[in-house]
Amino acid sequence: MYPRTIRDFIGFVDGVGYAGIILEAKLPELKLLIANHRAGGMDAPAPQDMGMEAMQAEITSAEWTEELVTLVGTRKRLVLRPGAKGQQDFVADSYIATIGGLWSATKFADLKPGSDVPLTLSLEVDYFRLEKDGKVLVEIDVEAYKRIINGVDQLASIRQAMGR
C-alpha cells in the first residue's frame, strides 16, 4: 500500500494566484501551550491545555513581485491549495488551507550572480482553516476564541462561561 502524498500546490495571496512563483510554503504548527500540574498523590506531572502557542506561516517566492515585497504590515489572506494522490488511482484529494494574520517579515536572500535569489515572507497567524475534500479538519480563530478540531469546538464551553 502506498501513501496518498502531496504532489503539488498553488498559493494565492489576497485572491491572486502565484503558480510557478511560490516555491515553498510552511503551514502553521498547531501546538498547545502546556502547563504541567503535579499535586499531592500524583506520581508525575499531568499536562494541562492552557491554550495555543503562537502560529506562524511562511512562503518563499522565486520572484520579487511588487505585491509580495510590499506585504509586510498588511493583513492579506494566504490560501494554499495542495493536492494529494496515491499510486493506485487517478483521483486527487483536495486540501485548502486558509491562513490569516499579519505579514511580519520580508527576507531577501543574498544576492549572488548566477544563482536564484528567493524572497521569504513570514505571516503571524491568527486564523487557520484546513479543509480536505470539503470537510473542515481544523479551524482556529484566535480573535473569536474558537478552536474547532474535527467538528468539535474545544473552546465553546469556556466561551459560554465567560459570556462570549
Key attributes of the depicted protein:
mainly beta, 164 residues, two-stranded antiparallel ribbon
Description:
With 164 residues, this protein is mainly β. It has a domain at 5-32 and 49-133. The chain contains 2 helices and 12 strands, in the order E-E-E-E-E-E-H-E-E-E-E-E-E-H. It has helices spanning 66-69, 156-161; strands spanning 5-13, 16-17, 22-26, 32-37, 46-52, 55-61, 78-85, 93-108, 119-132, 135-141, 146-149, 152-153. Strands 1, 2, 3, 6, 7, 8, 9, 10, 11 and 12 form a 10-stranded antiparallel β-sheet that branches. A two-stranded antiparallel ribbon has the order 4-5. A hairpin with a 7-residue loop joins strand 7 and strand 8. The longest helix is centred in the last third of the chain and has 6 residues, at 156-161. The radius of gyration is 19 Å and the shape is globular. The model has no long low-confidence stretch (mean pLDDT 96).
Beginning-to-end CA distance, first to last residue: 47 Å
Helix percent band: under 10%
Shape: globular
Low-confidence stretches: none
Alpha-carbon Rg, integer = 19 Å
User: Kindly state the mean pLDDT as a whole number?
Assistant: 96
Quickly count the helices: 2
Structural class of the helix and strand makeup?
A: mainly beta
Q: Mind summarizing the main beta sheet?
A: 10 strands, antiparallel
The H-and-E topology, N to C, reads as EEEEEEHEEEEEEH
According to DSSP, the number of beta strands is 12
Bin the strand percentage: over 45%
